[in-house]
Specification:
- The chain is α/β, with parallel strands linked by helices.
- The protein folds into 2 domains: 2-113 and 242-259, Rossmann fold; 116-236, Rossmann fold (3-Layer(aba) Sandwich), CATH 3.40.50.
- It has 9 helices and 8 strands.
- It has helices at 2-7, 25-39, 59-68, 85-102, 116-131, 153-170, 187-194, 213-228, 244-259; strands at 13-19, 47-51, 73-78, 105-108, 141-147, 174-179, 201-206, 233-236.
């Protein structure tokens, strides 16, 4: 069904897949491989991928390439798991600016979101981890799902929904949701609280598309908590990666644009709904704050493969001096996240925004 609809796609329509970007070479390589897998399903259409920040090509450069290929319009799909600030504000602002400047029609698709394909991909990654450590029923295990973390409560709540769907699908004894940054509970305090549930095995699953500094940071925190609790077995499941079900979800998002079924869930959007605690953000101007790191294309010399965490301040053990700075002095002019001082959350996270990817 999906492949048949893709076959009818006008060859003058370009496809653009938009990633966040990373300083980690391994992460950008994985994204490029995923993009190639998507491209193979639309071989007759001009295809490019681009990044919001840190990596090249940036979004505008990819759109320039598509224009040079003579496209009449572009379908742009954000490679984002959930709709938070990047999908709702940063990427649309860049696309709108480019469209207004050049006249190119850009049709913006929605984020990957929650569907049976994504849940199946996640479940299979977790099953792979279970097989690697036999001897315990899933009902005797605790599943901890780690989300990216956002100042958008709707996106955070979707991670909790993923956790519950996986717990019921696989029959885990219990499920907990923690986050790598921005919101609460963060990984380390969340894991330490979950120990009180008394499960002998804890599977930690990073609900991320790719590797990178954040996935490494998660594993470092798991290692830290495991060292303090040798009687508990901690099992690291792999992130989603280039899973066939993830690829299929991208093709679904392209088809939604073509069929007119493309719609983002706005009922709990903090920019449209008067959500309790986020009232000040209703109706904010759609703008991107990533121009200062757009295409800087600087990678850490330790990140040729998956980041070792040696240069990560969160490990509190760095002996290596970075050759570049991740800091900046200007203001992003954001509204303050109302839970910024939560004791289990971002107040304990002492790295800059650029260090989070």
């Amino acid at each position: 069904m999906i492949s048949g609809l893709l076959d009818t796609l006008d060859s003058n329509i370009g496809i653009l897949i938009i990633g966040h970007g990373s300083r980690n070479i391994h992460a950008t390589k994985e994204f490029a491989e995923l993009a190639e897998s998507i491209q193979s399903l639309v071989p007759s259409n001009p295809f490019e991928f681009g990044y919001l920040e840190f990596s090249r090509p940036i979004i505008s450069e990819s759109l320039d390439r598509l224009r040079k290929k003579g496209v009449s319009k572009v379908i742009a799909i954000p490679a984002m798991l959930f709709a938070a600030g990047h999908a709702k504000n940063d990427i649309p602002a860049v696309l709108n600016r480019y469209s207004n400047k050049t006249g190119l029609e850009i049709l913006y698709g929605r984020e990957l979101g929650i569907n049976n394909l994504m849940i199946t991909a996640a479940a299979e990654r977790i099953k792979e981890a279970i097989v690697s450590s036999p001897g315990c029923k899933t009902s005797d295990m605790l599943l901890v799902v780690v989300g990216r973390g956002s100042s958008d409560p709707d996106a955070n709540s979707n991670v909790s929904k993923i956790t519950r769907m996986l717990v019921e699908s696989l029959g885990f004894g219990w499920g907990e949701t923690v986050f790598s940054g921005v919101t609460f509970p963060l990984v380390e305090p969340g894991l330490r609280h979950s120990l009180q549930l008394g499960f002998p095995k804890i599977i930690v699953f990073p609900y991320f598309l790719f590797s990178g500094v954040l996935v490494t940071r998660i594993r470092n925190y798991v290692k830290l908590v495991a060292q303090d609790n040798p009687e508990i077995e901690f099992i690291n499941a792999s992130y989603l990666g280039n899973h066939p079900k993830v690829i299929e979800t991208f093709t679904e998002r392209i088809i939604e644009v073509l069929t007119g079924a493309n719609a983002m869930n706005c009922s709990l959007c903090k920019y449209r709904s008067n959500l309790l605690g986020f009232e000040r953000e209703v109706g904010l101007i759609q703008s991107s704050h990533h121009h200062h790191v757009e295409g800087i294309d600087k990678t850490c010399h330790l990140c040729e493969l998956e980041c070792t965490g040696e240069c990560d301040p969160a490990t509190k053990s760095s002996q290596i001096d970075h050759s570049h700075s991740h800091s900046h002095s200007h203001s992003h002019d954001f509204n303050l996240y109302p839970n910024a001082q939560h004791p289990l959350g971002p107040v304990t996270f002492h790295t800059s925004k650029e260090d989070e990817i």
